[in-house]
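# nightly structure sweep
# worker-07 picked up a monomer target from the shared queue
# config: single-sequence mode, recycle default, output format = structure tokens
# input follows
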Amino acid sequence: MVKPYIESGGNKKDQISRMFDNIAWRYDFLNHFLSFGIDRRWRGRAIHILSQVSPETILDVACGTGDLSIEALKLKPRMIIGIDISEGMLAKGREKLVRKNLEKSITLVYGDSEALQFDDKIFDAAMVAFGVRNFENINQGLAEILRVLKPGGLLVVLEFSKPRSLLFKKIFNFYFFRILPFMGSLFSKDASAYSYLPESVNAFPDRSDFLDIMRKVGFTDTCFEELTMGIACLYYGKKEL
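# output follows
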């Protein structure tokens, strides 16, 4: 299991919480800067997929500072709740909502993806952006999301993946494993966080392997699509009616 702080004790969940608390102050800037702004397009595509079910209630798991929740407002839902295990990220997210006058439209609360505090069958849709590979137990996290979805509810997952083209893979890996950790460390002052990023992506069961996990947990109509030459993938699946 890949963890951010190899030299430290504690489980992955505790380390992830600590890592995001450490980098919350620079998270949004580095997200957009290190992805050259492409992450905004990826989120837009995720919300387009979500629009297929016209959700009234949406759960944003591992919501971070709330960018995907804000994007989801385009769907005009009745309720969006974002959860995260990093209080630092949630604090930055709430500040952002206040600046944008959106604090009444989106609620950000502390929550553990593997032990969701919600009743069964209350959300029309759920979404996770760049958070599933940080779950300590992916199967448990997905099972919890399935539990709180209504029958017919849709899960959309946006996650980094490994490019398949050999030439592009070499170029991307040089950036991802060499340049990105250096720049991330320089700006965030946490070298481990941006070394963990490529390591966790490399260890993540992407594409058909992740769909296998979704199906094993109980999702149906599963599918994935590659984004930007396979740098990221969108995964989606439904809770059976």
